[in-house]
Amino acid sequence: MPDILIENVTLPDGRRTSLGIRGPRLAEVSELTRPRVIDATGLVALPGLVDLHTHLREPSPSPAETIDTGTAAAARGGYTAVFAMANTDPVTDTAERVRHVISLSRAAHAEVIPVGAVTTGLGGLELSAIEAMNTEGVIYFSDDGRCVMDAAIMREALMRVRGFGGMIGQHSQDHNLAGDSACLPDRHSQPDLGAWPGVAPWTGMPPSTEWPRVAEAAIVARDVQLARDTGAHVHVCHVSTAESVEVIRWAKARHIPVTAEVTPHHLLLGENCLAGLDTTFKVNPPLRGPEDQAALRRGLAEGIIDVVATDHAPHLPSDKAKPFPLAKPGMVGLEWALAVVIETMVKPGLLDWSGVADRMSEAPARIGQIANRQGRPLAPGEPATLTLVDPTRRSVVDKEKSPSLGRNNPYHGLELPDPVLATFWAGQATFVSE
Fold this sequence. Notes:
Blueprint: E1 4-10, E2 16-22, E3 25-27, E4 36-39, E5 44-47, E6 49-54, H1 67-76, E7 79-84, H2 95-104, E8 111-114, H3 130-134, E9 140-142, H4 151-162, E10 167-170, E11 184-185, E12 210-211, H5 213-230, E13 233-236, H6 242-253, E14 258-262, H7 264-268, H8 290-302, E15 307-308, H9 317-320, H10 337-346, H11 353-367, E16 386-389, E17 394-396, E18 415-417, E19 420-425, E20 428-432
Parallel strand pairs: 1-4, 6-7, 7-8, 9-10, 10-13, 11-12, 13-14, 14-15
Antiparallel strand pairs: 1-2, 2-3, 5-16, 16-19, 17-18, 19-20
């Protein structure tokens, strides 16, 4: 593998420098031998991005994604590490299944870190083999897609992971308030529609399809108290409401061990996208209103929300080509996450590049306990794991031009930043723009 010299690149803190890559590590420029030179004038170098929330779908009898295609999409988006959620078929709920995911990931285009299920089969009734999975290196456990509804089971899970410094990621959805068929934001998010009792008027669909804010905030509040009680780490997945942001703000002011994530689609897209009931925009939790969107952006800027996580959720076309209540929720997001953060956070001045590096690389690596190899400073001796970004490049999103198998792309047809020029993972180029 030849040495590489990246000349005149800008670091997240604004300093200009040259980066040398020799083998898997960054090196002093003077150490390089006949390097291949990349002129990076005008480009920004970020530590490789880290996603705490990816659905790679493999293993599965007929996967809507594979580890190969999903991590290729991750590399295209600037990611060098992804945490693979446990809701596969079979569910990742034993040490043997963790080992299987690791074995499937050996030729991946990014580091794949398995997430273990909290409960057996995601059933919510009994705890999975948490300690056995931890012996295989798992520290993050989540039933994502389903909420751990039983508070006693959630508390016991927190007690278990506290013993080895792990964490529980919660899909905060009270199913008594927003059942499995719920798929639309509550009509109370639009006060001027209060004259339409009994119906979600802007869609013409019944109230049983509504996913009210309180169904999220109530579980976040409960889990904050359980984290306070046990001293164990709760991670709040895909925060979508202003109320949840305020609960997390309250918890952090009291030094309760709680972290949180926001998705790119909740930063950019709003409930207005649902007017035509296009199932591409069906996601769980649903897209919300402008007040929620503003609160999410503000919370991310202030650090109340710690990280951006994609919740990349590809589906087979047949699973989306159904009536809205029956279609599966989820969107693909790995390739365009950085683009959305630039559009919603950098352009308006809510985050600078140091903030982007923190929310999309350093903080998720720290929370996921892989900071020994991901999210590292870009300095000699550190892993050559980085992303080269052109802040000015833009393009129209085309869902067909994707290494991901998923075509449920909510950004299709939008003009967005197209920033990633190259991704390096431990010195290997995993993506290079044409």
